[in-house]
Predict the 3D structure of the following.
Amino acid sequence: MAGEAIANTSDEVNGHVVKFEPGASTDVARRKANAVTHEFDFGEIGKAVAGEFPAEAIEGLRKNPNVQYVEEDRVKYHAYAQTVPWGIDRVDADVVHANGETGQGADIAILDTGIDSDHPDLQANIQGGRAFGDIYCGSAGGGCRFGGSPNDNTCHYEWDDDNDHGTHCAGIADAVDNSEGVVGVSNEANLWAGKVLDGCGSGSLSAIAAGIEWAADQGFDVASMSLGASSGDQTLKDAVQYAQNKGVLLVAAAGNDGPCSDCVGYPAAYSEVVAVSSTDSDDTLSDFSSTGPEVELAAPGGEIYSTIPGGYDTFSGTSMACPHVSGAGAQLMADGYTNSEARRQLKDTAEDLGLASNEQGSGLLDVEAATGGGGDNTAPSCSVVNPADGDTVSGTVTVQVDAADSEDSDDSLDVEVAIDGGTYQTASYNSTSGYYEYDWDTTGVSDGDHTVDARAIDSGGATDTSQVTVTTDNGGSGDSAPTIDTFSVSNRSNGGWARFEVDWAVSDADGDLSQVDLTLEQNGSTADSASYAVSGSSASGSDRLQDKKGSGSYDVTLTVTDSAGNTTSQTKTVTA
């Protein structure tokens, strides 16, 4: 316990303490001392003098009938140093603290039994709280449905912790780095106590849903929920959906019903919530941990040392795993991540322990990897290298983008290209050229100047962009490619036929339309087709494409060609 003292008899002697019988005067000790460092008055127990004494004086004092005892004043008492719990060390949270990743500025709502408002390892980070319904500190009375009893913690506030559980979780997520006790995954985030569970550790559906709603309405970044039930409720589902929409990163314990293969509790089982399973110090799954396809991350949960009202204790459970992830989420949110970006980053950087996916999800939480080693999320670099700014191009051009990121491999960057501010299309990494590449058919635009935009997005959501302006020339003025104005496909399939009604309209600014082609393909093989000779500046029509006894997915392609050979195509995928 922080501040307690421990004996170490090998430490140096720093004088002596002379204790006198009750009622006896200490004058003789004060006279014989070379220096007095302290005088004690223990009332009816007697008085004592601490100081530096000559050796002969000590011998004489030992023989004095009014002296009760003489003992060495050793420098042997030391405050317990701050402990880094094994879970904090295992997820490398302590590594990033020195680099400024402390969660400062982020808000964590601990939705639990409350938080001890005057705990020295939490007090600096606690900002306040709220108790819900009739669940307030001291409200549980003398009996608990599931055994045990509330603790005797002083209830300074209604949201104070009269159980231990909430304070323990708060310490894991965000205990202060203050040279005593423990340190959390984050250590400077703002803690908010949402007391949704009573002193017996139980809470109603409405209280928990109200706590989630409160966290969302307050604009908190993270809601940490080390609680659950075997079945869900619509109200709870609505609450988590509301909070997710409001930008809250929702984290919950998977449950302690293990060993099992599909038993994640609620709210962890909801898709809006990050479900966390528990591991032990040897990286095995804790035997109590619930598992299931909803598990997204694993975190330390076995034998975790953390804060409780009035001190510290060791608990085990997925309840302890959950706040490890909550504290890490706060660090990312403090760095500017959204809730969805933080969720993706935590999963993308998790360490694979070799456990089944329903046991570890994406893997063990890795705070150092998630925060990029403790610094801000550095943006990638992005530059269009081909075509160059000012180039004249024609036909199909391979747009090449040079993109890289110090924190991501080439295949984990998202690189996209857009023409003239249109929809971004994926550029694929070519390991031979070393560039991300996208094929652009320039015949689909009129001749003239056009912008090519590229952007690179790393796994943390950081983005860099690049733009060049090029001139397209596919035959000069008066020879632009035709345009598809309408292309709709209606499914008219029945038990014997895959049938699709196609309506189309095309146009050409040069007035030299030539041909319209329709094809129905499945797995690369043509099942049906139709062609029309057209002319002038516009044309439209409809047709039925069909495949007898067909089923599954089909590609319907519309191609329009002008008399100069310029073509424009669109494809729609439909299911019979």
